Amino acid sequence: MTTFTFVGIIGCAAILGYAVAQAFASRSGRRYWAVSGAAIGLGIFALTVFVANPGEVKPDGVLYEPFFMFGPLGYLLMVAGAGAVVVRLGRGLAHRKPAAN
Questions:
Q1: CA–CA separation, 52 and 25 (whole Å)
Q2: Number of domains composing the chain
Q3: What is the reported pLDDT for 81?
Q4: Within a domain: residue 53?
Q5: Beta bridge partners of 93
Q6: Which of 7, 59, 68, 80 is the least buried, fewest Cβ under 10 Å from its Cβ?
Q7: Long-range contacts for 4-8 (Cβ within 8 Å, ≥24 apart)?
Q8: Distance between CA atoms of residues 19 and 17, nearest Å
Q9: Is residue 98 part of a domain?
Q10: Which pTM does this prediction carry?
Q11: In order along the chain (101 residues), what is the average pLDDT of each group of 10 residues?
Q12: CB 61, CB 20: distance < 8 Å
């Protein structure tokens, strides 16, 4: 993993964390679901780009993957988006009042 790839993944994770934190702080449910859906959608897109452009082994035996960063980034985005959905649903169920008989 190159330094550029590592910095790119950390930078995207920081931006995603900030967006999720802003969505949590928002009273509007629309923004929250939009950020969660966008994270999952971008994760699927990143994994699609990663799979569509396979790596190759150069004649000297070195593996060359031009879009390597999109693999871990796609998984990170999908897990973060899915985690945000689970947290929101969990908070909704925890705040639900029991039905009166």
A1: 37
A2: 1
A3: 84
A4: yes
A5: none
A6: 59
A7: 4/69, 5/68, 5/69, 8/69, 8/73
A8: 5
A9: no
A10: 0.67
A11: 72 73 69 80 88 89 85 87 81 70 60
A12: no
What one-character-per-residue DSSP string does the chain give?
--HHHHHHHHHHHHHHHHHHHHHHH-S-HHHHHHHHHHHHHHHHHHHHHHHHS--EE-TTS-EE-TTTTHHHHHHHHHHHHHHHHHHHHHHHHHTPPPPP-
Contacts 24+ apart (CB under 8 A), 42-48: 42/74, 42/77, 43/73, 43/74, 43/75, 43/76, 43/77, 43/78, 43/79, 43/80, 43/81, 44/74, 44/78, 45/74, 46/70, 46/71, 46/73, 46/74, 46/77, 47/71, 47/74, 47/75, 47/78, 48/74
Query: Is residue 101, in this structure, part of any structural domain at all?
Result: no
Confidence at residue 91, expressed as pLDDT on a 0 to 100 scale: 74
pLDDT at res. 73: 85
Is residue 99, in this structure, part of any structural domain at all? no
